[in-house]
Amino acid sequence: MWYPAFTTGAPTGEVVDLESAKLFLRVDGDDEDSFIAGAIAAAIQHVESYTGTRLLEQTVELRAGAFADLNHLPIGPIRSISAITYLDFQGVAQTMAPERYSLCGAGLERGIRPAFAVTWPSTWRVADALTVTAIVGYGEAEIPAPVKQAILLLLGDYYTNRQDTVIARGGSPAPMPNGVETLLANFRLFG
């Protein structure tokens, strides 16, 4: 079982900059810059949550209970694995040598497997015995165009429907604007 990813190295760069957002929204002037910047951040967070990805390159820690959990990593896109630490059968923290494992899979569906002729060590029986430190996300220039467009569509919806977007009548979340789910379909991590 995986716990939610914890960001240890914050991303740098911008997925959608303020100027591009204002151009998309057809906004002149600076009066609403603060609102638009907040709406950009909310749209990015919404897309990351919906897709199970991180858009900008950053370092995260992933925690799990067993080496079997490494077959499928719960976040993407994985750029590299920086470290795997675990609590051995005596409860002592150990760091696994990089030559003892490898990243497998492609695209968003990635996992970690033991190297040839290597078996995973025994771990302490606790829910967070493993910690994987990984570099995830796209480079600023690599963010797929459909993902950026989905963020802009969400931003447009947030801008136009300020009060109705987050919670619809009856207390349930409002649906995403037309096209957003379709734009994100190929960039969503399942599992």
Write up what this structure looks like.
By secondary structure, this protein is of the alpha+beta class. The chain folds into 2 domains: 83 residues, Phage gp6-like head-tail connector protein (Hypothetical protein yqbg, Orthogonal Bundle); 79 residues, no CATH class. Helix 2 packs across helix 3. It is elongated, with a radius of gyration of 20 Å.
Return the CATH architecture of the largest domain: Orthogonal Bundle
Would you identify the CATH H-level superfamily of the largest domain?
Answer: Phage gp6-like head-tail connector protein
Q: Structural class of the helices, strands and pairings?
A: alpha+beta
User: What is the terminal-to-terminal distance?
Assistant: 11 Å
Radius of gyration based on Cα positions? 20 Å
Mean pLDDT: 91
What count of helical segments does DSSP give?
A: 4
Please give the share of residues in helix: 25-40%
Strand content: 15-25%
Shape annotation: elongated
Given this structure, which CATH class of the largest domain is correct?
Answer: Mainly Alpha
Helix-strand topology string: EHHEEEEEEHH
Number of beta strands: 7
CATH fold category name of the largest domain: Hypothetical protein yqbg
Taking pLDDT < 50 over at least 5 consecutive residues as the criterion, the unreliable ranges are none
| Largest sheet, strands/sense/barrel | 5 strands, antiparallel
Q: What is the number of independent domains?
A: 2
List the strand order in the largest sheet.
1-2-7-3-4
